[in-house]
Structures are given as structure tokens and as C-alpha cells.
Amino acid sequence: MRSAIGVVRPCMSHVPTQVAVKLTYYGSAQRVSRKMSLTVSNSWNPLGSESVQSRVATRPAKLGDKWKEYQGSNNWEGLLDPLDDDLRSEILRYGEFVEAAYHCFEMTRNLRATCGVRLPRWIERAPRWVSTRSSWIGYVAVCNDREEIARLGRRDVVIAYRGTATCLEWIENLRATLTCLHGHMGPKDGSPMVESGFLSLYRSHTATCPSLRDTVKEEVKRILQSYGDEPLSITIVGHSLGAALATLTAYDITTTFDNPPLVTVVSFGGPRVGNRSFRSQLDKSGTKILRIVNSDDLITKIPGFVIDNNDTADGKPVQVTGLPSWLRKHVEDTQWVYADVGRELRLSSRESPYLSKGNIATCHDLKTYLHLINGFVSSKCPFRATAKRVLERRHKEEQLQFK
Questions:
Q1: Can you list the domains of the chain with their CATH numbers?
Q2: Where is this gene product found (predicted)?
Q3: Which of 58, 55, 52, 53 is nearest to 89 (CA)?
């Protein structure tokens, strides 16, 4: 047995925060111990003087037989507005998975993504950070702690993805036209389509590095063979680019494996991924997606144009929002019409007294998302800091009505 200190850089490349995780090695597997230390650079902390420890303050609850509800079996009905404290605790816990490996879980597979962008030969003379095609992007972890399994009500498998970190990944992000998941059909054929760059990162491979898709499917197959006879869930979490990859991964798992376990996506600050047909296929596959959105985060508003969210039934005419009527017809047949997926939990940086206003990078930061989740109460009372004032005002109004 050997021990070492591993350093994981979470999420976006502009976040210099380092999470130091004490790793204990058991043969080829890595088990993350219960002790985790966080080192946060104050100059990049969007929460100012608020400590990281106070951010995740909700006590984990024993879910028991209710675990499927918290995984989205009923699309989180009655749990989002106001935000259920137990669900808040689970979302924050999954957010920590994106930042670093979490205690009580054994890391079973590191994941790498490969960019499919064709590069000119001269790029080989460029710095390595420019030309790196394959890079570490996440991991698969399985809960092997008996107490945690008892608390969760099942054995949970977590697939976690970071956000954009390399030059070529940024280039893939800019390939924003839709491309078909299957075959070479177009938007008029009603086929599921997704963003070209995201699909490229998910499916591309090299002679020495298999695709992210193949690696994940191989590991999920092994896990299902090992634990398929017990209550099991697969939770895929990601931030930014990782949120898009999480959605593609969920689609692949639910459409590839026979009788898969409940698959849930917890998406932080994710961009749009696919068209209306892709959304329909996700719904039919049973995939549950909780899409956490900061209203002030630009990334959640791109790429392309979005379909009216009220247009959820097949056969209805496509209505593109945000465009004048004369331009809609020309846009609707292009490869730029997207559809939001899943159930949305909408937050806002403007409601927090701890965040600087108008900072684009801060609005997209994963730490900001966890901070907002920790403070969110309901749509009528969007942040705990304002809850006292709202309750006091409501109490005065009730007193006046009584008189």
C-alpha cells in the first residue's frame, strides 16, 4: 500500500483553485480517503470573504426509499421551488465531485477526451498546450462505503466531467452547428442532432487513446456486471463543457444498455446540447436531467437559437424565440435551432450580496453555482440573506390584514 497527494484542477481553465486530495492506492485502484483539504486562491475567490467550508453547510440526509425522487424519477416535482434541503445537500455533494474526487467513493477509471479538429502540420512546432489532442477530463467513481450506501439507499456510480481546459477544447466549443447523432440526415428529417464540437470530443480517438464514449461504455458495462444485482444508480455530473458531455453520456447509456439503472444528470452552467428531436429522445429514454442555470451566466444562453420551451410535443410547429417573425422561417430550417433539456433550477448572481456584479467569469464559475445553491430558498425568496427581510415584510402584511 502506498499513499500520495494528488492535485486535481477543477472545471474551467481560468480557475486557478487547486483541490489537494489525499489518495491511498490499493493496487491499480485509487481510493479517496475521508480527509480532503481545499486550498483556495483568495484573489480568484468569487465569494470574497465567505469561506469554502461555510458554502457546503447542509447536513447529508438519509434518503432511504426516497432516493429515486431525489434522482428525478418524478422530475423533482415539489422539490425545486422552494428548494428541498435534502436535495440541496445532494446537489452540493455532486458539485464537489466535479471539483475533485470525493470521500467514500473508489475511483475506478480516469477519463480522457480527444479533440477531432484537423490540425495543420506546423502546429507540431507550437507549444504543447496548443497542440494537445487528448487530455484528462474526468473519472468514474463507485460508492463502496457501507454507511454511505445505507444513507443513499443504493450504490451510486458517479461520472464526473470538468469544463473546458485546453486550447483545442475551446476550438471544439466554437463548432456550434448541429450534426446528426445517427447517419447523415438533416434537420428536416426529424433526426436527433447535437452540437458538432461536443460530439467530436465525445467520439474522437487516436491510435493510442480510445474515445471518451468507448471508455465510459466499457466501464459502465463492467460496473453493471459487478453490481447489477443490487439497487444501483448512475449520476453524471459536469460543469460547462462537462455538462454537455454529461448529457451525451447519459443518452448513450440509456439507449445502449438493456434495462439500465436510473440515470440522472446534474448539470452546472451547461450550454445547449441538441435540437428538439434530441430532447424528445432523452425524454423517451428515461434520462433525468436537472439543469442548474445562473440567469447571469452567458454560457447557458449559447449556442444557437432556442426553441420555445412550451413547444414540447412532437408534431407542433417549431417556434424560435427571440427573433422577428420575418427571420424565423429562414432560421428554422438551419442547423442552429437548439432546445433546452431537462428540468431547470434557475438561480441569479444578482441575488447574492457576496458576489461582484457584472463579472462574466464569476457568473460562470462552479464555486459561484455552489454558493448560489447553498443560499437559494425559492423563486419568491431567491437567497437566504434576503429571507429574513421577506419574512418580516410578510408578517407585517399579515398583521395589517388581520387588523
A1: 53-402 (3.40.50.1820)
A2: Plastid, Chloroplast
A3: 58
Angle at 93 between CA 247 and CA 153, to 5 degrees: 90
Residue 401: φ, ψ to 5°: -65, -35
- Reported as type and span, the H/E element at residue 329 is helix 325-332
Three-state DSSP at 235 gives strand
Q: Which of 61, 101, 100, 64 is nearest to 84 (CA)?
A: 61
Catalytic (active site) residue 86: no
Residue whose C-alpha is closest to residue 251's, from 218, 203, 288, 299: 288
* Exposed / middle / buried, residue 49 (Cβ in 10 Å: 0-12, 13-18, 19+): exposed
Residue 297 bears catalytic tag = yes
Catalytic residue among 297, 340, 349, 352: 297
**Element at 393 (helix H, strand E):** helix 384-402
Q: What is the DSSP string of 201-231?
A: HHH---SSS--HHHHHHHHHHHHHHHHTTS-
Amino acid at 101: A
Q: Pick the catalytic residue: 205, 239, 364, 371?
A: 364
- Compute the distance between CA of residue 159 and CA of residue 248 in angstroms, rounded to an integer: 12
Q: Is residue 1 over pLDDT 70? A: no
Total-model pTM: 0.79
- Mean pLDDT, residues 164-171 taken together: 84
Residue 263 bridge partners (DSSP): 234
HSE at residue 57, side-chain half, CA atoms within 13 A, is 12
Tell me the three cell numbers of residue 21. 486530495
- 8-state DSSP, 341: -
Spot the catalytic one: 89, 233, 240, 349: 240
Position with higher pLDDT, 322 vs 344: 344
**Tens-place pLDDT, residues 286-337:** 999 999 999 999 999 999 888 655 444 344 444 555 556 666 666 666 678 8
pLDDT of res. 195: 95
Q: Any alpha helices (H) in 27-166, and if so which ranges? A: 52-55, 67-70, 85-99, 128-131, 146-152
- 3-state SS of 283-310 is HHHCCEEEEEEECCCHHHHCCCEEECCC
H/E stretch holding 57 reads none
- Residues 252-260, mean pLDDT to the nearest whole number: 95
